[in-house]
Amino acid sequence: MKAYLVLTAVGPDRPxxxxxxxxxxxxxGCNLEDSRMAILGGEFALIxxxxxxxxxxxxxxxxxxxxxxxxxxxxxxxxTPGQQARKDKGFVxxxxxxxxLDHPGIVHQIAHALHQIGANIESLETQAASAPFTGAAMFTxxxxxxxxxxxxxxxxxxxLQAVCDEVNVDVTIQPA
Length: 176
Known about the structure:
Layout: E1 2-12, H1 17-27, E2 31-40, E3 43-53, H2 54-71, E4 74-80, E5 92-101, H3 106-116, E6 120-130, E7 137-147, H4 153-166, E8 169-175
Antiparallel strand pairs: 1-3, 1-4, 2-3, 5-7, 5-8, 6-7
């Protein structure tokens, strides 16, 4: 029987972390199905969905905290039913991108508006950086959103545009 596990780890960045973790999973016969890895500040952060036979997943679950500790990270393993168990079947996927001058509250305001219409944020990436030439602090948000099937694209655009106007960012919405 196929089982699933979500692994998380965070700690000081250095070369070789992905190699060591992926080898650990490969050596135990598991498949890395979905992953997000990034360096945030000076910290390496990882979240992955792993699949394998029940006994293989059991080994990974029990050994992972010790393995990541030896690598210099703090980690955790959590069982999950996998992607087939998602409850939002029928939801329509969209890509949302917002760009503007950086200030507190942008993510919260957009997330709150999406929550109010029953949408689920499936992935979210943000970045603050200096604009070329001016050096102004710019903010970029990119997300994948699952929208209830009864919500029209026009209604989604209207609601998101209103909140983005409030926080002074430009927004684009496209089917995913």
